Amino acid sequence: MNSIEKIIHENCVLLNVEAYDQHDILSQLSDALYKQGFVKDTFKHAVLEREAEFPTGLPLVSIGVAIPHTDAYHVARTGIGVAILKKPVEFSVMGSPDDKVHVSIILMLAMNDGKKQIELLQRLMEFFQKEEKLLVLKDMKNEKEIAAYLETEIF
Amino acid sequence: MKKVLVICGTGVATSTMVINKLKEFFAEKQIDVQLYQSKVSDILSTGNDYDVIISTTVVPPSIKTKVVNAVPLLTGIGKEKVFNDILEALK
Fold this sequence. Notes:
Chain B: Its EC number is 2.7.1.-. The structure holds two protein chains of two kinds. Chain A is of the alpha/beta class.
C-alpha cells in the first residue's frame, strides 16, 4: 500500500493520552481524524451519538478495547484513529449496554462503504483475537511505530 | 432453507465482521442457510420473518425470533457457545 492510501496516519495515533471520560477521548480522536481529512465535520457528533446508543466496548481477556464508528455518510476516506490511554476510561459493552468495561485501547473506525472494508473489518476482527499482538501496542514508544505496526498486522 | 439475519447498530461494521465468520462456519458444517444483513432499526417490521437473529446489539423486545448475541465472535471469547446456540436455534 503506498503512502497516499495509508489508513493509519501517525497524527491520528494518540499515544499515552489522557482523557477524563469516553466523551473526551472520542472527541480527541474525531478531531484528529478530521484534521487529517479522514472524516467530515459531522463525524464527531455522529460517532458520539452512535456510541451512546450502540456501545462498542469489547472486554478481551486482559484488556478492554473499543471500536467506535458511525455511518459511512460522515466519512471522507477510510482511516483508523488509535488511542492508547494512560488510564483506562469506562465504555459500555457492545450488545450488553448495562455491562461496563475499562478500555485502554481504542480503534476509531472511519469506514466508507465498499468491498475493501469487508476485508479490512475481517482482518481487524482476527487481530483482536490475537490478544498478544494487541498488547504489544501498549509498550510501543512512538506514534510512527504504532501506525507502521498496525498497517503491517491488519492490512 | 433457513433464514439467518445478522444485525448491528449500523448494518455495516460489526455485522460484516460477524457475517464473514458465519459464512466460514456454515460452509464448514455444510449447512445451507440464507444469510441476510441489516441494521437494528430496519428490522422492526421484518424481524419475525427469520429463523434466528444474530446480533451485536440489543434487539427490541417486540421481536419474537430467537436472538443470539454475536459479540463473542468478535472477541473470540466464548465463540463455541455462540456457534452451538446458533445450531440449536436452527434445529
